[in-house]
Design a protein that fits this description.
It is a single chain. The protein has helices at 2-12, 14-24, 32-44, 50-75, 83-88, 91-104, 108-111, 119-129, 134-158, 163-209. The protein has 214 residues and is an all-alpha fold. Helix 2 (14-24) packs parallel to helix 4. The mean pLDDT is 84.
């Protein structure tokens, strides 16, 4: 798959990278991480600029995700009448996504980027159920894409001329992406928790300073 995608991208340029990554967002069985690595390899071989490749990759990823969310938002459960949507969002997957929404809430829009096989069902369900506003979905999804896409692209870029090293780090890359995402999510959650705690402390101090009304 990697060699095929590298040839495809090399022959057709940035547009092919954008289209393939957008199609990944439709739930088709094309590994997003391998597609990103292939874009990086193409850059490492001198057929593209790696920084431009990162930008194209992020835009392609977001385009596919947004289309799935908007499809669910506009058509709701009527979208399930489409055969490929019904295949993608089976009753079992729908129940699984609902369970994850109950567990993670809106944070699932960020976490979904790191759940292969469930990204598209999650974005589609989010649009269908209107549990998340478009802006919140887009910001969380963009934040996650800004973490995952550069890691895979630069991995391909630095391993373009050393296939043994690249193949070794392809499996490790998944762990790295998850660890980086978990670390960033931890610090972000800690920041907001501390900010909320400070606000509550200030509110209690203000209330304690008020004199009781006669």
């Amino acid at each position: 798959m990697l060699d095929f995608l590298v040839r495809l991208f090399t022959e057709n340029g940035y547009l092919s990278v954008f289209v393939v990554l957008m199609i990944c967002g439709f739930g088709l069985p094309i590994p997003e991480d391998i597609s990103l690595v292939a874009g990086g390899v193409m850059s490492g071989l001198g057929y593209a600029n790696v920084h431009t490749m990162c930008a194209v990759a992020i835009v392609g990823i977001l385009a596919g995700d947004v289309l799935m969310f908007v499809l669910g938002r506009i058509y709701g459960e009527r979208a399930l009448r489409l055969r490929w949507v019904a295949y993608l969002l089976t009753p079992r997957r729908y129940a699984m996504v609902q369970a994850k929404f109950s567990r993670y809430g809106n944070r699932l829009m960020f976490i979904a980027r790191f759940l292969p096989g469930l990204r598209s069902p999650i974005y589609l369900t989010a649009g269908m159920t209107r549990r998340v506003s478009f802006m919140r979905f887009f910001l969380l999804d963009t934040f996650a894409a800004l973490i995952s896409a550069p890691i895979w692209v630069y991995l391909g870029y630095y391993g373009a001329k050393n296939h043994e090293w690249l193949l070794t780090w392809l499996d490790r890359g998944k762990i790295i992406v998850m660890l980086v995402a978990a670390l960033i999510l931890f610090f972000v959650a800690r920041y907001f928790w501390k900010r909320t705690a400070r606000r509550r402390t200030l509110l209690r101090l203000r209330q304690s300073r008020r004199k009781p009304q006669a």
